[in-house]
Amino acid sequence: MFILGLTGGIGSGKTAASDYLASKGIVVVDADVVAREVVEPGQPALQAIAERYGNDALLPDGRLNRAWLRKKVFAEPQEREWLESQTHPRIREAIIHQLQAATSAYAILVSPLLFESGQYQLTQRTLLIDVSEALQVERASQRDQNDAEQIRRIIAAQMSGADKRAKADDIADNSQDLEHLHQQLDQLHHAYLNLAKA
What pLDDT, in 10s, does the model give residues 69-88? Predict the structure, then answer.
């Protein structure tokens, strides 16, 4: 199976790009969605989190208290390492399983941390959806109602745009309208279909 890794920073338009390729019948596996699935009630990762932190880590309905856990692991780096040791192998296993089950001409793994997490190793080719940092901040603040400063902190914590551009096989510029993005994706989609056949 030919697997395309699709990435981009916050507010870059990863979802717009993956939704468009999905509309062409391509199976999309989203690492963020998988990351939420592995900590659903009844999953071993949530059980391990509850055993370590007790009820503080859970909401009244038994689901993960993400806000509490986020504060905890950002305040204590060794706790973040423990959490990642519980979740990352399970996320990787679930991603591999979903990609192997794909029946389209090729499959897409969408991950904001494709390069940082090593998930690019599951792919044959990588596509970066690229915009300027100023545009990232503008779009993400409008979308998430987050203040610009928080978005800048998220951007600063991730791999730089320059490093991502250096690592990516393909780059789609999303600084204009959706039609401009779709034109680039159409060309890339045809190239990926050919690579998948080869």
Answer: 988 887 888 998 999 999 99
CATH 3.20.20.100 fits 1-26+106-198, yes or no: no
Instruction: Give the whole-angstrom CA distance, residue 177 versus residue 116.
Output: 28
CA angle 94, 39, 81 (to 5 degrees): 90
The pTM of this model reads: 0.88
Residue of 123, 102, 104 whose CA lies nearest to 168: 123
* pLDDT at residue 145 tops 80: no
> How would residue 149 be classed by pLDDT, with cut points 50, 70 and 90?
confident
d(CA 193, CA 47): 41
Q: How far apart are CA 188 and CA 106, in angstroms?
A: 12
Residue 37, judged by CB atoms within 10 A of its CB (0-12, 13-18, 19+), counts as middle
**What sections of 43-132 are H helices per DSSP?**
44-53, 66-75, 77-100
For CATH 3.40.50.300, list the domain ranges present in the chain: 1-26+106-198
Q: Which amino acid is at 173?
A: D
Q: Dihedrals φ, ψ of 119, to 5°?
A: -65, -20
Interatomic CA distance for residues 195 and 145, integer angstroms = 40
Burial 4-22 (b: 16+ CB within 10 A, else e): bbbbbbbbbbbbebbebbe
Q: Does the pLDDT of residue 31 top 80, yes or no?
A: yes
